[in-house]
Design a protein that fits this description.
alpha+beta, 5-stranded antiparallel beta sheet, 4-stranded antiparallel beta sheet, 16 helices, 14 strands
Length: 475
């Protein structure tokens, strides 16, 4: 019996030693996977608390823990509103990671904990905040009384709207004809676009093209590329995701994309130092690093740092009336053109309408002729799936023709079910935002196809208009 007790005591002591050693290891040298998870949690909670005004625990549960890796369920966050900071720790103890709110420029991951450097990287003179008005959309936030009942009924169908839909806005002939919101969300809630940001970032670059400060054919784009094969990479190669640079976009583990977003305060560093794996223009590789490089390139071409920080607002958001748009910077002052733009569904729809109008707004051309055309033109290396302007022709599975959609349809898409469909032949824009992980296999083509089928045909449009007039109260 004493022998058994000794064995049990020894095992208990060994277990304590193992636990202490493991805790020490996690405290001193936490695995990168835990640091990525905490960095993701801190950043997402920070942006949603300070930009969207949501509760931290709701964001942690709904946005971070529910759809992701089981380890994320062990992450705990704390919000310091006095210092505009969020801290996330695994089990509330290990692998701390931080995010900092910087006003008009939203939140940034601060993986090195250097809050002073992160604060100094954001300008002291952010662009003035625009105020929304009650004019009819897109001039203001008013939507008027007419609502297309058939389309509204479709948006109320969970099977068509998709799991965890947060916002849908349908724009036809330049006006909102139907919209719907998930519980806890509204037309005033800024929502992340994830990789839809890439197309907005491309449009910011296009604004500079209109002024002649950059072109599709520019090469020798970064100083460190000057004396090697990367000097041959052109702006057009980056826009088409055909740079030839190696980049791992696998979100299931610690990969280039998660290192860039959550482990490196300077997001430019990793893609800028990536090796070549193919000649420019020869291989399609979807890469968030490519979009960040485009941010750095257009920022450098603007002329000075202060003007670069204000440029997205001054050149794009203000002219379009995107009053809610918050384009976030990394911790060293580069716009996160791959992922981090928050805006209301109405403002996302404004951007879609802008592309539908070929880059013209209120009669003024803001993008060069042919630039939106590049967003609709397939690249050969992507087998026709991706375009020359950071947009998609065939997101998910199958082309538009295979899905029974008009052939001129093109798309913005983003992580967790963000999508925007632009259909010039139907004069239609459909924005769908939510928290719908790819494992749920929701396809945005389902929503678009149903809406297209419900649109009034010529003649029926006049009949509906007449019916609406008859039902209006008579004076």
């Amino acid at each position: 019996m004493r022998f058994v007790l000794r064995i049990l005591k020894a095992l208990a002591l060994l277990l304590v030693v193992i636990i202490v050693a493991a805790a020490g290891w996690l405290f001193i040298r936490p695995p990168q996977l835990l640091r990525v998870g905490d960095g993701y949690a801190a950043k997402i909670v920070c942006s949603n608390v300070f930009i969207a005004g949501r509760e931290a625990e709701d964001v942690l549960h709904d946005d971070v823990q529910a759809p992701g890796n089981p380890l994320l369920r062990l992450v705990r966050v704390s919000v310091d509103p006095d210092n505009d900071r969020v801290t996330a720790r695994f089990m509330g103890l290990f692998a701390p990671s931080y995010a900092l709110y910087r006003g008009a420029f939203g939140c940034t991951s601060v993986p090195d904990g250097n809050f002073e450097a992160a604060a100094k990287a954001a300008p002291f003179d952010p662009p003035a905040k625009m105020q929304a008005n009650d004019a009819l959309w897109p001039e203001g936030e008013g939507t008027g009384n007419p609502v297309d009942g058939k389309i509204a009924a479709l948006l109320a169908d969970a099977g068509i709207a998709g799991p965890a839909m947060r916002a849908i806005v349908v724009v036809r002939n330049g006006r909102i004809v139907a919209e719907a919101y998930g519980p806890g969300f509204s037309a005033k809630t800024p929502l992340i676009g994830w990789s839809m940001t890439k197309t907005v970032n491309a449009a910011v670059l296009g604004r500079l093209m209109l002024g002649g400060k950059v072109s599709f054919d520019d090469d020798s784009l970064l100083a460190q590329w000057k004396n090697d094969a990367r000097a041959r990479i052109k702006v057009s190669d980056l826009l088409g995701m055909e740079s030839g640079l190696a980049f791992n976009e696998d979100y299931g583990d610690v990969a280039d994309v998660t290192r860039m977003l959550y482990l490196d305060p300077d997001m430019v560093s990793l893609p800028a130092n990536a090796p070549m794996e193919a000649a420019p223009g020869q291989r399609f590789r979807y890469s968030s690093g490519t979009a960040v490089l485009l941010s750095r390139i257009w920022m450098d071409r603007v002329g000075n740092a202060q003007a670069a920080f204000s440029y997205p607002h001054d050149a794009l958001f203000a002219p379009l009336g995107m009053t809610s748009a918050v384009f976030e910077l990394d911790a060293r002052g580069t716009f996160a053109g791959s992922s981090y733009l928050y805006a209301t569904a109405h403002d996302w729809a404004r951007f879609g309408q802008f592309l539908l109008q070929d880059g013209v707004w209120n009669g003024q051309r803001l993008l060069p002729e042919g630039f939106v055309g590049a967003m609709r033109t397939p690249t050969a290396a992507s087998n026709g799936r991706y375009t020359q302007g950071q947009a998609w022709l065939a997101p998910g599975r199958g082309s538009s023709a295979e899905a029974g959609l008009p052939e001129d349809t093109f798309w913005l898409t983003g992580h967790d079910g963000q999508s925007m469909a632009i259909v010039p032949s139907a004069n239609l824009v459909v924005v769908r935002l939510g928290l719908t992980p790819s494992r749920l296999d929701y396809q945005p083509q389902t929503l678009l196809k149903a809406i297209l089928a419900a649109l009034p045909q010529p003649g029926e449009q006049q009949q509906r208009a007449g019916s609406q007039q008859q039902t209006q109260p008579q004076p």
